[in-house]
Specification:
Blueprint (H helix, E strand, L loop, with lengths): L10 E3 L8 H7 L10 H17 L4 E6 L2 H10 L7 E6 L2 H12 L3 E6 L8 H10 L5 E7 L1 E2 L4 E2 L2 H10 L5 E5 L11 H4 L3 E5 L10 E6 L4 H6 L9 H5 L14 H17 L1 H23 L4 E3 L11 E6 L3 H13 L1 E5 L14 E5 L6 H17 L8 H13 L1
Parallel strand pairs: 1-13, 3-4, 3-5, 5-8, 8-9
Antiparallel strand pairs: 2-10, 6-7, 9-10, 11-12, 12-14, 13-14
């Protein structure tokens, strides 16, 4: 008979799929609806309105049945032609993933790789754009948060140097890990295309990919020769009939779940949502600062301004991270995020990296429970935690909530 204490409700502290609220799950627990007329059509129209409200986008949003990789491909094929040049700002695994999709489509990708520990440098971006005197670069692609490294990029600063360089390239941003977690203002920041997915800040099961577009895209869209019927924005934004929005059967139950998730976000208010994520990220950082005094672990991202509000990546001495993940899952029912290779050459291995997701449907008692289990695991594995990370996190939450 096992003596594990994990036989209660488990908790996923990975950076997506995030915790799904009971309200979302209950909204999805229903019979299949009529997909040709009636409630589902009105229901779906409200999603487009409120998704754009949260993104602060005056343009359109396209919904696909797919994951973030689907959104990467959709964003590229609708705006570009084979052989077009793209400038990719890479700060980790997911930036490289978007590059791989672009190269697979026959695009000519110029990569500015800023490593795995710091955000993209606007000065280097501006220099690259100024050097492109013939304006061959058609798009700049980057992530707001790289889920593997937990680096966040300053999107307004990137748009500022694009404007300063007087470069006509489109700005395309991956917000898969950051949407509804970190502040984003598509209109004010001059983002032409933003992509995200349902399973992180939107608190809905994986399966929906979202592409937000501004009116600036349509001239480029008209010229793009990579478009295919399934991915084409035009038939989805201007459908001949309801199901054409999805190029066939809509993802009915995901739409019901997403509607409930949007209701929850709007009830809280996006300013409060962003504030909550800021406080909880600061609490995680305070805990890691305390544990780091043992010398057994450290942040992947040293500079606070470069850290994501949705996920924190932590490096440990050899083997500690994998042992900690195993202990927490077996003994407490807590699942921590695995390490994803941080360096392009794979030099940082999974055994000494773990991630704490602090995104979506999360409040202090669930976050402090996560940090408490991590602290117990560190103690069980012989790490000196005489400076309590949990106590440090509690002080942050108490101070910032007041």
């Amino acid at each position: 008979m096992s003596k594990s204490l994990a036989f209660g409700r488990t908790h996923m502290a990975i950076p997506g799929p995030s915790v799904m609220p009971d309200r979302v799950l209950q909204a999805m627990h229903r019979a299949a609806p009529n997909i040709y007329e009636g409630e589902l059509i009105e229901h779906s129209e409200s999603l487009y309105r409120d998704l754009n409200l949260i993104a602060r986008n005056s343009g359109e949003v396209v919904i696909y049945i797919g994951n973030g990789h689907a959104a990467w491909e959709a964003s590229l094929v609708n705006l570009l032609s084979r052989g077009d040049q793209v400038l990719a700002l890479v700060t980790g695994r997911f930036g490289r993933g978007w590059v791989a999709i672009a190269e697979g489509l026959g695009l000519d990708v110029q990569v500015l790789d800023f490593g795995a520990e710091q955000s993209a440098d606007p000065a280097q971006i501006e220099a690259a754009l100024q050097a492109d005197t013939e304006h061959k670069i058609k798009a700049v692609i980057t992530v707001q948060t790289d889920t593997a490294t937990s680096i966040t990029n300053n999107i307004p600063a990137i748009r500022e140097v694009m404007t300063s360089a007087d470069h006509p390239a489109m700005l395309m941003v991956d917000c898969i890990a950051s949407f509804a977690c970190e502040r984003f203002d598509m209109d004010a920041w001059g983002v032409d295309v933003m992509i995200t997915a349902s399973q992180k800040g939107l608190m809905t099961p994986p399966g929906i990919a979202l592409v937000f577009i501004q009116d600036t895209v349509w001239p480029r869209h008209k010229e793009a020769d990579l478009k295919t019927p399934y991915w084409d924005w035009h038939s989805r934004v201007y459908p001949a009939y309801f199901a054409a929005r999805f190029c066939g059967t809509p993802p009915t139950h995901h739409l019901y779940g997403l509607r409930e998730a949007l209701d929850m976000l709007l009830e809280e208010g996006m300013e409060n949502v962003w504030h909550r994520h800021h406080v909880q990220a600061a609490a995680v950082w305070a805990a890691v600062d305390a544990w780091a005094q043992s010398g057994a672990l450290t942040f992947n991202v040293a500079l606070v301004s470069d850290r994501s509000l949705a996920v924190t990546t932590i490096k440990t001495r050899d083997g500690l991270a994998s042992n900690l993940r195993a202990w927490c899952e077996k003994e407490t029912g807590l699942t921590l995020g695995v390490g994803l290779s941080l360096a392009p050459d794979g030099g940082t291995t999974d055994s000494n990296v773990f991630r704490i997701g602090h995104m979506g449907h999360l409040n202090p008692h669930s976050l402090l429970g996560t940090l408490g289990c991590v602290e117990m695991g560190l103690m069980a594995l012989g790490v000196d935690v005489s400076v309590s990370g949990v106590a440090s996190a509690m002080k942050v939450i108490e101070r910032k909530s007041a």
